[in-house]
């Protein structure tokens, strides 16, 4: 339900903060964490050249950081390949984070109800850099099964779930994000930009964005969950247009998703440790 190339550089809040003078900021640590962020459900193994391309870091810097991450157990060499993957230390850290996410287990059945009703996919995500990372994904019995799962990264500027995040940003924050992406050539062509602008402009009235993709015969709606800006979540519902034609999305599925976002708000507010 998304498209667009992987970002050339992984922008993170830490990296952005580092642009301002901060005597307490440890640049080497931020760069090491930026390397760990390169790995996700789709990019399970990476070479140092790929990591350098994704992060924008110099190759010698990547070599040194990856060596350190290997020594500390956060990265591991894939047997028989010149590739790296997350090590036991990173997996243990992720498991510790997931252990406290009781709110997600409360939310899962609510997403599954909508997924089963229309036999499509419903996902909950949160922004990380220039992507929305899936925290939950529920799949109905759809004839079209997308190769997406928990941990998948969806491009912020090329997806309904990303557009819904942008739609609930302040105009200043949204303009800053778009300006940076434009300067780095990650905004797509003029038609893509116009489609995004239209969807965002319609969000206040609709309460959701609608993203049709005729070339792929997929339609998606998405809505933001109103929380403090640093903790904002987004939810989406999408599938083949044979199951989710535009009139159904605009008149029925979109409003249901808008209500689902409202229903999830108090659950996420109570479980803000997620």
TrEMBL record:
Every IclR-ED domain range: 89-270
SUPFAM superfamilies membership: GAF domain-like, Winged helix' DNA-binding domain
Superkingdom as given in the UniProt entry: Bacteria
Keywords for the protein's UniProt record, in alphabetical order: DNA-binding, Transcription, Transcription regulation
KW Transmembrane (keyword) present: no
Stored InterPro entries: GAF-like_dom_sf, HTH_MetabolicPath_Reg, Tscrpt_reg_IclR_C, Tscrpt_reg_IclR_N, WH-like_DNA-bd_sf, WH_DNA-bd_sf
Nucleotide-binding recorded as keyword: no
Domain HTH iclR-type: 26-88
Gene3D superfamilies for the chain: 3.30.450.40, Winged helix-like DNA-binding domain superfamily/Winged helix DNA-binding domain
Pfam families registered for this protein in UniProt: HTH_IclR, IclR_C
GO MF terms held by the record: DNA binding
Protein name: DNA-binding IclR family transcriptional regulator
Organism: Ottowia thiooxydans
């Amino acid at each position: 339900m998304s498209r667009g190339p992987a970002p050339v550089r992984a922008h993170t809040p830490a990296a952005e903060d580092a642009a301002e003078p901060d005597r307490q900021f440890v640049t080497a640590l931020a760069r090491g964490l930026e390397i760990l962020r390169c790995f996700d459900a789709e990019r399970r193994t990476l070479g140092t050249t790929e990591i350098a391309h994704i992060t924008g870091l110099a190759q010698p810097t990547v070599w040194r950081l990856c060596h350190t991450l290997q020594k500390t157990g956060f990265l591991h060499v894939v047997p028989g390949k010149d590739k790296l993957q997350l090590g036991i230390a990173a997996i243990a850290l992720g498991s510790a984070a997931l252990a406290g996410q009781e709110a997600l287990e409360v939310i899962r059945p609510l997403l599954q109800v909508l997924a089963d009703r229309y036999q499509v996919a419903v996902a909950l995500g949160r922004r990380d850099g220039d992507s929305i990372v899936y925290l939950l994904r529920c799949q109905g019995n759809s004839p079209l099964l997308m190769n997406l799962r928990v941990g998948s990264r969806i491009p912020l500027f090329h997806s309904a779930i990303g557009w819904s995040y942008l739609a609930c940003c302040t105009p200043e924050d949204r303009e800053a994000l778009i300006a940076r992406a434009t300067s780095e050539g990650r905004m797509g062509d003029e038609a893509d930009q116009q489609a995004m602008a239209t969807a965002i402009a319609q969000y206040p009235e609709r309460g959701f964005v609608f993203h049709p993709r005729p070339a792929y015969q997929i339609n998606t709606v998405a809505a933001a969950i109103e929380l403090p800006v640093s903790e904002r979540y987004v939810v989406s519902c999408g599938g083949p247009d044979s199951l989710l034609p535009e009139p159904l999305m605009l008149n029925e599925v979109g409003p249901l998703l808008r209500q689902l976002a409202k229903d999830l708000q108090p659950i996420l507010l109570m479980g803000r440790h997620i």
